[in-house]
Amino acid sequence: MSAKCLATALTSETGEDYFRHVQWSADGTCLLAITASNSIYTYVVPPDLMDERELPLDLSVYCKITSNDPVNALTGYPHFDLTDPQTSLVLSARRDLPIKLNSALTGQLGASYPLINPMTEAYICPNSLTFNPVGDRFIAGSESLISIFDLSRPGQEPISALPTGPRRRGDSHHNPAINMRGLISTLAIEPSTHVLAAGTFNRSIGLYESMGDGECIGVFSVKGNSADAAIRGSGVTQISWSPCGRYLYIAERKSDGLHLYDIRKTGQLLAWLEGRNSVTNQRMSFDIFPTDQDGSHEVWAGGIDGKMRVWRNPHHSEGPMPPSSEFDAHNGMFGTPW
After folding, report:
1. pLDDT (tens digit, 9 = 90+) per residue, 172-201?
2. Residue 337: is its pLDDT beyond 60?
3. C-alpha distance from residue 211 to each of 19, 131, 245, 266 (Å)
4. Global pTM value
5. Which H, E and C letters describe the chain, residue by residue?
6. Which of 267, 198, 203 shows the shortest CA–CA distance to 231?
7. 299 near 272, Cβ under 8 Å?
8. Is residue 319 part of a domain?
9. Which run of H or E residues covers position 231?
10. Number of folded domains in the chain?
């Protein structure tokens, strides 16, 4: 399998800065990036990107939002439209600050949403953010806590807060079937059932009704499953639903692959995608692309060797599954295949 490079972007000429995370805007017109220099970059992709040319296009930064503190979480507005400034928004979380909603085109602050520890009155910094499909609410994941905010209530605290489990280890009220402890590192909503999946650095996955505003459906751990000895892992960094909503893909730090769970039977490992070459502490993202209306799809994931690997229809397999194809995509670590 081969691929043609259409465009490139540099964070710095010296190589001292680098991309920590990149994602597409919902309308496919912009790239939203987090850099190691604690900045949020917006790149507007030229409309002639797909035209034939000898050399790749050089992308330049359209907007830059800077700060002294790292960006812990970032997500674009689900109805992002480059032609409508009211929707061209990016939500981010930084330490010791409220959650901020900025224009991705000007950097201007549009609103802020405080998440405060009632015991210390200090800001809680989420490690994961996601919007609901409608775009009128967003969900923040922090230490053993899922918080839901109303976008129309800037400056106000969350309208709902769900503790996912006791914060203290060994608490007698801890029930491993419905409770999970730890920093919630990733969130994903299944659009048809509205089930919220939340993953933690403690290697647990929790499933919640009503996009986090309902009961806990169940909790399971990827620790000690059949894939653990093969691909390893030390904390969940990303979870994504399959297009049909029946399966959940799970990525971890220091892991050489992805877990694939059948969510119709909560906590049942179906298969694992191996050979990713991604054993690193850094977050290594993956993406899922539908290939047919029958639920067929491909999983694309980058490795520390600069290669992109593709697995076709992993949900048709059981046990270990090697990549279906791979190609050179980068001359360095490939963290985000968005």
Report:
1. 566 777 899 999 999 999 999 999 999 999
2. no
3. 30, 10, 14, 17
4. 0.93
5. CCCCCCEECCCCCCCCCCEEEEEECCCCCEEEEEECCCCEEEEECCCCCCCCCCCCEECCCCEEECCCCCEEEEEECCCCCCCCCCCCEEEEEECCCCEEEEECCCCCEEEEECCECCCCCCECCCCEEEECCCCCEEEEEEECEEEEEECCCCCCCCCEEEECCCCCCCCCCCCCCCCCCCEEEEEEEECCCCEEEEEECCCEEEEECHHHCCCEEEEEECCCCCCHHHHCCCCEEEEEECCCCCEEEEEECCCCCEEEEECCCCCEEEEEECCCCCCCCCCCCEEEEECCCCCCEEEEEECCCCEEEEEECHHHCCEEECCCEEEECCCCCCCCCC
6. 203
7. no
8. yes
9. helix 228-231
10. 1
Amino acid identity, position 93: A
* Full residue range of the structural domain in which residue 114 is found: 77-328
The domain that contains 313 carries what CATH number?
A: 2.130.10.10
Domain assignment of residue 70, yes or no? no
Per-residue exposure over 202-235, b if at least 16 CB sit within 10 Å of its own CB, e if not: bbbbbbbeebbbeebbebbbbeebebbeebebeb
Q: How is residue 47 written in tokens?
A: 């409309």
User: Cα 337–290–215 angle (5° rounding)?
Assistant: 90
3-state secondary structure of 25: coil
Please give the residue that has the higher pLDDT: either 241 or 6: 241
What's the mean pLDDT in 111-138? 97
Mean pLDDT confidence for 316-324: 96
Tokens of 58: 């050089």
Q: How far apart (Å, rounded) are the C-alpha atoms in residues 147 and 198? A: 12
User: Count of residues for the chain?
Assistant: 338
In a domain? residue 23 = no
Give me 338's structure tokens: 């968005």
Predicted pLDDT at 336: 53
Question: Is residue 315 assigned to a domain?
Answer: yes
